[in-house]
Amino acid sequence: MPTTLDWSHSDPDSWANYPVMLATQRGLTVLGADHSVRPGLAERWERSRDEQGREVYVFHLRRDVSWSDGSPLLARDFVVGWRRALRGRERGEMADLAGAAEALELQDRMAAEADILAALEKVGVEAVDANTLRVTLAHPRSYFLARVANVYIFYPAPSADLEGRSAEEVRDYFDRPRDGRPLALGPYRVESWDRAGERVRLVYNPRSAFPPPLAEGESPVQVITLMKSEIGPALYERGRVDFVFVDSAAALRVKRPEDLQREPLLSTYYLAFNTERAPLDRPEVRRALSRALDREALVSGLLPAARPSHVLLPPELPGAASPEAAARLPHYEPERAKAELARVPGMERPLRLVYRSGDNFVPEVAIAERIQAQLARVGVQVVLEARSDFSAEIARRTAQGPRAYDLYLRRLGGDYAHPNTFFTLFERSGNHQTGWETQGGGEPMGRFEWLLEAADGEADEAKARALYTQAQEVLVGEQAVIAPVYHPDRYFRARDTLRGLDVDPFNFLALRTLRRSAPAAEPKRAEGAP
Fold first, then answer.
1. Does residue 330 have a cis peptide bond before it, meaning omega lies within 30 degrees of 0?
2. Helices marked H in 45-143
3. Cα(255)–Cα(215) distance, rounded to whole angstroms?
4. Each residue of 266-317: pLDDT tens digit?
5. The whole model's pTM is what?
């Protein structure tokens, strides 16, 4: 269930809003089946650098796109939407825009409203004319086009509906859908939102320039009801709902229904090390532990299919490491690991592995138990601990200073189809809780961040890929801050009369190409048959 329908303001739980936002709105770009960037609301664009070295995009908007009330999409809609996003609860996501730093700083210190509004006027988003948008970034960013496809705070807002309204009127506009509002660009718009009943009703938008692709015998689905339920699987079995996530990895080992479907995610499940706590404060020890892990065996038989990996970046991701680069990262070498760990003082202490409690689509308990068994074979004792307060626990520090855990298991999902989204968690400001910023006096992390900055600003894709590969080698190889385990998949069930009802690679319910096919005709009975 969404927490808001206001895509410009969003909130820290933005992941919950994506199914509705992706069904009702669109970005300047879209992602193809191969995750490449393609035209979306913009039919084309030019990319250049100004005299200050800033990156400048000029987007030419499609002229056949209209909001769900028939009014045309305007460049002004992006200006209004992005300025609103700079005042929203996730405004830091807009920091790449030229001038955004000043506007964010003024808000953080609660400056006068007139000063904030003046700063927003100078932010790098400008309507050159009704159909041309100029965007200026403070620094070149190779991920920008991929990001505006999926991160919905970059979507336009209906300026004609919102400008001139009070803050209270705008909240009401989004909080109480009625009279065809809020407006939509996608194939659906929100007709009603029942918070108490946890239901959202979407209706087909015939004015959308992005209708679902229809084959012979297919038709658009006119009404969709999204609902939250603890008994989703039972409702599906009874024919009350047409789609349900399979949220239990344990259930997949018991029963695998014929209509079970699978979506490979741009995601990585990994084992992280507390680099500040001996004996894990030595990179050679962390590398040896990574070499002790047989990823194939860790996930074998736990899921209908699995993609074990010792690499952070999923292979489907544009810019992922080549097989040659992947071979340089720590991989399964048990005898070498055992010999290296035998020489390490302090390894007699049991290591504490923390993971999230509760069942979900990642088989965490089984993987944790198998890691425990595999490390025991190289002489390392591991104690397992499931925590409902996982995030607080991996951040908790001992009286001596370092964090209290030794190892933790966690899934990292991409927000957009670009290597950058997999690395930001491990920067100095990221919520990785590994302490690796202290390693080597901070030099390895400094080098890692330099490689990311260079890759983010590199226009040549091949050169950018080489830089991201080097950054991955620092994080996963040289410093072995984490040991990737596998790239998760998402399982779900959907009626065979529905097409395009699935999950996207970012783990969100996808409704953009939803259509219905006629049910298969029952075979004719022979004359006189009962």
1. no
2. 75-85, 100-108, 113-121
3. 33
4. 999 999 999 999 999 999 999 999 999 999 999 999 999 999 999 999 999 9
5. 0.92
